[in-house]
Amino acid sequence: MITQDQLTAMAGCAAHTDQGQRLGQVEYVLVDDTTGRPEWVRITDRASGLGGVFVPLRTAEWKDGRLVVPYPVTLIEQAPCAALDCGSVLSVSEEEQLYGHYGVRPARDEVNAEGDAGWAVMDRAQVMREGTTGQEHAVSRLRPVQPGR
Fold this sequence. Notes:
Structural class: alpha+beta
Largest sheet: 7 strands, mixed
């Protein structure tokens, strides 16, 4: 998993698969606004035509000055992508689609699966941000962070 400290070194760094294939450059990272954990990275490569794909950071690694993700190029190329600007975030439903595509469990599910650990405080904070129940699909708990800033 990528740490907060490693975010500063990721500005424009190259992203590769764990098989050594170059994917492109890190455009920005989406950080969970409650936990502060880096969750998603947006990778672009104008040369190859790979335009703005999101890849989960939970199992990514920082090696030799580059981001390494454990997913094959074909899976990444087929990821559901929202055309987002740097100031935009993924909605909960978009994030759920991406989790499903990559076969990753949402962090909330993993934490809640740890017995009494739960995210009660986080859940309350999300409800307060959303204002009303039933609009979860349209909101986000993520915020974009430009690596290196």
